[in-house]
């Protein structure tokens, strides 16, 4: 959601009284007394004309692009004006700055063609135009407003989407929405990769199964992340431990989320599981309790619950999070396990079990057994 514009004001340099507020919508957001304090930055010296200027004062952030049109038909041989957007002082205005500059160019063009700003007969249209810009940009983020007979003002507030983090070999993608377009509309790499995105295959396995070079697979997955088609979740292991997040309370109170959960985690061909049983499984997840322990204690299949789907749903909806294990080398006088010696460089507390297993091609159970038998290695769970 883009920040809201508090007000739009049009100021100009009057030939006799100097800088003044010509129009403002809504009125009196910036009073005359306040404007007089900052007018040197709203109608500045010639060297600042045509440049974006942001004034942070009086509890507001005012963004404008002052313009001077030189022509002998104007008094003092120039028309100097500035149409400014006014925001709350704490708002990030970076997405609106190109709009302010573009609007200054539009007004310059309209003035040169029709005298929109300077002729008395057209000046009564200016507040109406400003009200439309304010309303449409705040409500929709864009506007299309005809001015005169030949010009239509097109403005759009762009929203910056953060670049997704790099996809790692051990990351597991899961589809969180429909692919959004027909299969044939995606590029060839994406078409090859999509069938293997099931919420269980890590990136390295998808590359092998799809017969696509792994860096191409990572680029493809990053593109799908950008468009919010997939989400990255941890590799499912029965030896994994999870803990609930503060969002677990949503499952108690949100009927729609409850219905989604019951349908997603139900074993196919069975009736829906009970919400009570789902909540019991989720709230039993804590440090020291593995998925295997939960299965032995509660028998999810007997409760008509697919434990793998239970974990998937919980992670995607942020109801639970995985507790990752990070091996750390703490040298002692004991003899190291020769099978682990080559892995010691990765035992720095920055590489989790999933990443190490994926890089060296061993199972997590095998890695855990080796680490347990090596007194030089301790494990941090977080």
Terminal Cα separation, in Å? 33 Å
Task: Give the helix level as a range of percent.
Answer: 25-40%
Write down how many β-strands occur, each being a DSSP E stretch of 2 or more residues: 14
Overall pLDDT level: 91
Number of helices: 14
Main beta-sheet strand count, sense and barrel state: 6 strands, antiparallel
Whole-angstrom Rg: 31 Å
The geometry reads as elongated
List the secondary-structure elements in sequence, H or E.
EEHEEEEHHHEEEHHHEEHHHHHEEHHE
- Amount of beta strand: 15-25%
Uncertain segments: none
Question: Which structural class do you get from the secondary structure elements?
Answer: alpha+beta
Structural commentary:
This protein has 382 residues and is an alpha+beta fold. The protein is 36% helix and 21% strand. It contains 14 helices and 14 strands. Strands 1, 2, 3, 4, 5 and 6 form a 6-stranded antiparallel sheet that branches. Strands 7-8 form a two-stranded antiparallel sheet. A two-stranded antiparallel ribbon has the order 9-10. The two termini are 33 Å apart. 27% of the residues are buried.
């Amino acid at each position: 959601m883009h920040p809201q514009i508090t007000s739009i004001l049009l100021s100009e340099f009057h030939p006799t009284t100097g800088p003044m507020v010509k129009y403002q919508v809504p009125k009196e957001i910036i009073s005359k007394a306040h404007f007089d304090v900052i007018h040197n930055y709203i109608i500045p010296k010639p060297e600042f004309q045509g440049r974006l200027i942001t004034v942070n004062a009086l509890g507001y952030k005012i963004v404008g692009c002052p313009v001077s049109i030189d022509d002998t038909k104007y008094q003092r041989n120039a028309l100097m004006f500035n149409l400014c957007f006014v925001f709350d002082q704490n708002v990030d205005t970076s997405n609106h700055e190109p709009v302010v500059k573009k609007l200054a160019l539009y007004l310059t063009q309209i003035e040169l063609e029709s005298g929109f700003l300077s002729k008395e007969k057209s000046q009564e249209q200016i507040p109406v135009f400003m009200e439309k810009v304010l309303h449409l940009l705040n409500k929709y983020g864009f506007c299309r407003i005809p001015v005169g007979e030949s010009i239509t003002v097109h403005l759009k507030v762009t929203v910056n989407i953060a670049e997704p983090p790099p996809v790692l070999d051990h990351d597991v993608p899961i589809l969180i929405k429909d692919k959004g377009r027909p299969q044939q509309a995606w590029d060839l790499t994406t078409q090859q990769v999509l069938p293997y995105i099931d919420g269980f295959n890590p990136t390295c396995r998808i590359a092998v199964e799809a017969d696509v070079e792994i860096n191409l697979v990572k680029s493809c997955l990053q593109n799908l992340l950008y468009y919010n088609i997939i989400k990255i979740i941890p590799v499912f292991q029965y030896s994994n431990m999870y803990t609930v997040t503060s969002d677990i309370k949503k499952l108690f109170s949100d009927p729609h989320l409850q219905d989604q959960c019951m349908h997603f985690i139900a074993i196919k061909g069975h009736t829906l599981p009970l919400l009570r049983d789902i909540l019991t499984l989720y709230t039993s997840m804590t440090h020291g309790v593995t998925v295997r322990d939960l299965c032995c204690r509660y028998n999810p299949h007997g409760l008509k619950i697919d434990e793998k789907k239970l974990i998937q749903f919980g992670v995607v909806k942020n109801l639970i999070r995985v507790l990752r294990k990070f091996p750390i080398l703490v040298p002692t006088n004991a003899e190291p396990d020769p099978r682990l010696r080559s892995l010691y460089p990765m035992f720095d507390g920055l590489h989790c079990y999933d990443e190490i297993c994926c890089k060296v091609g061993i199972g997590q159970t095998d890695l855990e057994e080796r680490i347990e038998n090596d007194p030089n290695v301790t494990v941090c769970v977080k």
